[in-house]
Design goal:
Number of domains: 3
Order of helices and strands: HHHHHEHEHEEH
Helix content: 40-55%
Strand order of the largest sheet: 1-4-2-3
Shape: elongated
Strand content: 5-15%
Number of helices: 8
Structural class: alpha+beta
Radius of gyration: 34 Å
Largest sheet: 4 strands, mixed
C-alpha cells in the first residue's frame, strides 16, 4: 500500500513536470490505467514540438524566404500605382538607351531598333512606342531563335505578347545550332527573342538621344 502511494505521488509529480503517460510508465513500471486514475485532475502538459529533420528545417526556411520574397514584390508593385505619360516617357527612354540599338560616329545607323527576350520588357517598350504615336504599320517584328527550338510555338508566343496576329511577324531569324555548345536557354519555356524595328525612325532616334541627354544633364546638376 505504501509503495502504491509512493507511485501515485511520484506519478503526480512527474505529470506536473509535463511528462507523458509513456514517460511516467517507463519510470514507474505501472499501467497507464493506474496513471490515468492518479493524475486525471491535473492539466495536460503542452504538446512537445516534434524534432524536425535537416531537410524539414531547410524546407521551412525556404518557405519563409519565398513568402518574404512574394510579399516584398507585392508591396513594391503596389507602391508604383498608376504610371503617368511622363513617367512612361522617361522609363522608355532609359529602357531604350540600355537595350536598344545606338548610332555610332563611325557607323551612322539612326534608326530605332530593339531586341529582347523578356516579354514584359517588350510589352513596356511597345506601350512606350504607342505613347510616342508610332503606328503599328511602322513596326517590323521578327523572332530570333535557335533552329533546334520549337519555332512555330515561339512565333505564336511572341505574337500574343505583342498583341498581333502571327502573320504580322516577319520571317523568323534562325541561329544555327552548334552541338558542341552547351546552352542553358532550352526547354519548353525557351522562346528566343523578339526584335522590334521602327520604319522611317531617324527623327525618332534623334529625339530619343536628345531625351536621354536631357536626363543625364538634369541628373548631373545634383552631382557634387
Amino acid at each position: 500500500m505504501r509503495a502504491k502511494t509512493e507511485h501515485r505521488e511520484t506519478a503526480r509529480r512527474l505529470r506536473a513536470e509535463g511528462r507523458t503517460y509513456d514517460e511516467i510508465q517507463a519510470a514507474l513500471g505501472v499501467s497507464k490505467s493506474s496513471i490515468s486514475l492518479w493524475v486525471r485532475d491535473l492539466p495536460k502538459p503542452p504538446r512537445k514540438a516534434r524534432a524536425y529533420t535537416g531537410k524539414e528545417r531547410l524546407a521551412a526556411v525556404m518557405a519563409r524566404r519565398e513568402e518574404h520574397r512574394v510579399r516584398t514584390k507585392a508591396e513594391a508593385a503596389a507602391r508604383i500605382g498608376a504610371v503617368s505619360d511622363r513617367e512612361l516617357l522617361l522609363i522608355g527612354v532609359a529602357l531604350y538607351w540600355a537595350e536598344g540599338g545606338k548610332d555610332k560616329e563611325y557607323d551612322r545607323r539612326e534608326r530605332v531598333r530593339f531586341i529582347n527576350s523578356d516579354p514584359q520588357m517588350i510589352q513596356v517598350y511597345l506601350a512606350w512606342l504607342r505613347l510616342l504615336g508610332v503606328e503599328q504599320d511602322r513596326l517590323r517584328l521578327r523572332v530570333a531563335i535557335h533552329e533546334s527550338a520549337d519555332v512555330p510555338a515561339a512565333e505564336h508566343y511572341w505574337a500574343e505578347v505583342a498583341g498581333v496576329h502571327p502573320e504580322f511577324l516577319q520571317s523568323t531569324t534562325l541561329k544555327k545550332h552548334n552541338p558542341r555548345t552547351t546552352r542553358k536557354n532550352t526547354g519548353g519555356a525557351y522562346y528566343g527573342c523578339l526584335s522590334v524595328n521602327v520604319l522611317d525612325s531617324a527623327d525618332l532616334y534623334r529625339r530619343i538621344e536628345g531625351w536621354w541627354s536631357g536626363i543625364v544633364v538634369d541628373v548631373g546638376r545634383d552631382t557634387p
